[in-house]
Structure formats: structure tokens, C-alpha cells
Amino acid sequence: MRVLVVDDSMFVAKQIGQILTSEGYEIVATAGDGKEGVEKYKELYPNVDLVTMDITMPRMDGITALEQIMAFDKNAKVVMISALGKEELVKKSLLIGAKNYIVKPLDRKKVLERISSALK
After folding, report:
1. E strand map for the chain
2. The domain 2-118 is classified under which CATH number: 3.30.2130.10, 3.40.50.2300, 1.10.1060.10, 3.90.70.10?
3. Are 112 and 19 in contact (CB under 8 A)?
4. Alpha-carbon 106 to chain mean position
């Protein structure tokens, strides 16, 4: 499974990368904001099985990036990553087409559960 990690926090991106690679996922690329995430998705398409997308980022937020990825590929599998207290944004992203969400701080077991359920 090939994953694109989109997060403006290097720490979070690294953490997700470590959790996923330890379970056999391959991180094909990382992006530091939504704009770069959309560009990388289009560049790597169709060789991306899943995107983890932070909601709050500079230049382009995760919801706008999600809309653009879904417009480009309606079958994209995107899992949103959000800080606590962003329920409205999480709901909006699920309506747009996100498959699931993960709340920070990251819990290894939850990350793996939510990601494997998004890939079904």
C-alpha cells in the first residue's frame, strides 16, 4: 500500500510515516501543505493507494486540497488528520469524500485501525 502524507508538521508526518512503514506500508511522498499535496497526488497518480491529509495547513488547507483531489480522482482514499475540537471541519471533509479521520495526538493502534478501514 502506497501512502502520500500531507502535513505541515514534520513531526506528525514523521510519526505517521514510522507507524505505517512499521506495518509494511510504503510512504511514496510527503507534502508540507495542501497545494503541494494536490500536486504530488496528480504527479504520482495512479500509484497512490491512500492519502493522510492534515486539516489545518498554510497556503492551502486540507479541506480545499481534499476537494481538489476528489475532483481529480473520485475514487481517492483520503484520511483526514485533525486536532481535537475540529469536529465541524471533520464532518465537512467526510461529506466531501474523506474515508475516515484520525485525531491528534496520534495513537498507533487507532491510526492503523482507521487507515485499514479506509482501504476496504
Report:
1. 2-6, 26-31, 50-54, 78-82, 100-103
2. 3.40.50.2300
3. yes
4. 13
Secondary structure tally for the chain: helices H, strands E? 5, 5
pTM: 0.96
Amino acid at 39: E
pLDDT tens, residue by residue, 52-104: 999 999 999 999 999 999 999 999 999 999 988 889 999 999 999 999 999 99
What does the angle CA 19 – CA 57 – CA 82 come to, to the nearest 5 degrees? 50
CA 52/CA 42 separation, integer angstroms:
15
